[in-house]
Amino acid sequence: MSENLRQMLDLGLFWEYRSILLAGLAFNFYVFAASASAAIVLGFLAALARVNPLRPLRWLGAVHVETFRNAPDYVMLVWVHFVMPLLIGQAIGMRVTFAPFVSAVIALGLVYSGYLAETFRTGMQAVPRGQIEAARACGMGGVLVMRRIILPQAVRMMLPEAMNNFVSLFKATTIVSLITVPDLMYRVQMVTQQEMRPLPLYTGAALTYFVLIWAVAALARAGSERWRRKIWA
Amino acid sequence: MGNWERLVWNQRNVLLDGFLVTLEICAIAFAVAVAAGLGLALLRLYVRPLRWPAIMWIEYCRATPIYVQLMWVNYVWPEILGWPTTFYTAGWVALALQSSGYLAETFRTGIENIGRGQREAAYAVGMSPLLTFRRIILPQVLVTIAPSIVTQFTVIVKSSTLVSVITVQDLMFQSQRLVNVWFEPIEILTATAAIYILFIFAVSAAGKALADRLRLRYGLGT
Asked: A115, A145, B23, B145: which has the fewest C-beta neighbours closer than 10 Å?
């Protein structure tokens, strides 16, 4: 028991492999950056569709949001990796395969575009209608109203919730190891098979993610609060 | 449509077995998470010496990805604690661990939002702290946080797909096994995704309806 405990706290093994593991952590960030960009673009489009006066577009937006917001990350990941290339292949009559990294970015981008679309939509709808009508009355066009009146306020209002979405997205990047993207968890598994000592390795991985995510979440919370207060004060 | 019948409809018993395992493991994890979350919130609020350990534990549960926790519970706990001994137990323990952290914070904000005056009034009429908590505070807290608790259940269902990785035979596991038997993933995986999406959608819709009813009945904001 105490021997095991000593082994668990002995993170030397984790430290020994630091360069390999750090390179894995970099993959978490790559996947995060790529899928966050995809999710922001897609989520913004879906949010625009949901507040559009055209009914079919509103429906399309709602279907997008409800599908991806309710889909489990892992199911989506497996579906995009194994089914989507086959469907595309059937459509264009060619053999298509996705690299694991590409599948990871598509899957996480789709899932989090659903969450972000809702965040964006609530932010946009929180801007009082009177302001929009006033802007229209001054002769501003739809795009200009969006860019100069709605977005500057909406972005500030939705920032804390968007930060939560991004923190969740970063946590979700750990599952990409399951389709062999060589991220931190993937490498921890490889090293564990080599060393046969799961204790320090998995504990090290858990602690690394904890410190990283906790610190980033705390910073994001403080930062977005301060920015909001500065504007709204 | 022949493929759908052969690969999905004819395999419905296997998929249903998997879905029942999913429901079961989620129900256990949810019950444990609610109890543990309430316990942690109470420790954090009312038990001075355990305040900091409780905060650290809550933050740890909240800030670690579920997949990492699952691996941690599955590989590390048995060696230090000698428990959990089966993959199934490791699965629900990890799911409960994650959600207990979130629920603890939900309970805490719920409890803190109830005015001090109510507790003082209850003491003034001679109620003990325990009775006050059980009869005055907890019912109101449950009404306000019921929607968040339902949301947390959907999070557990989403995360539960990962227990298939440690060979718990849930819906995801069964559908991947079918894929490995037939080598035809399109219909099976699409059906699996649809089942999950519809189930989680139904649970969230029920949660939203519950929130609306509670608001109407008790006049509470959410």
From this structure: B23
Within 8 A of B204 by CB-CB distance, chain A residues are 70
Residue A198: domain span: 2-232
What pLDDT sits at residue A233? 45
Prediction pTM value:
0.91
Number of domains in chain A: 1
Q: What is the pLDDT of residue B222?
A: 43
Please check whether residue A96 touches B, CB under 8 A.
no
Interface predicted TM-score (ipTM): 0.91
The structural domains of chain B, ordered by start, are 2-218 (1.10.3720.10)
Burial of B177 (0-12, 13-18, 19+ CB in 10 A): middle
Which ranges constitute the DSSP H helices of chain A?
2-9, 12-16, 18-50, 55-69, 73-82, 84-92, 100-125, 129-137, 142-144, 151-172, 184-195, 198-232
Q: Do A199 and B80 touch (CB under 8 A)?
A: yes
Q: Is the pLDDT of residue B129 over 90?
A: no
- Measured CA angle at A104 (ends A98, A105), to 5 deg: 100
- Partner-chain contact A1 B80, CB within 8 Å: yes
* pLDDT reported for residue B27: 97
CA distances from A163 to A211, A217, B89, B169 (A): 17, 8, 33, 35
CATH number of the domain encompassing residue A97: 1.10.3720.10
pLDDT over 70 for what percent of chain A? 95
Which of A66, A75, A174 is closest, CB to CB, to B67?
A174
Per-residue pLDDT reduced to its tens digit, A188-217: 999 988 888 888 889 899 999 999 999 988
Residue type, B192: T
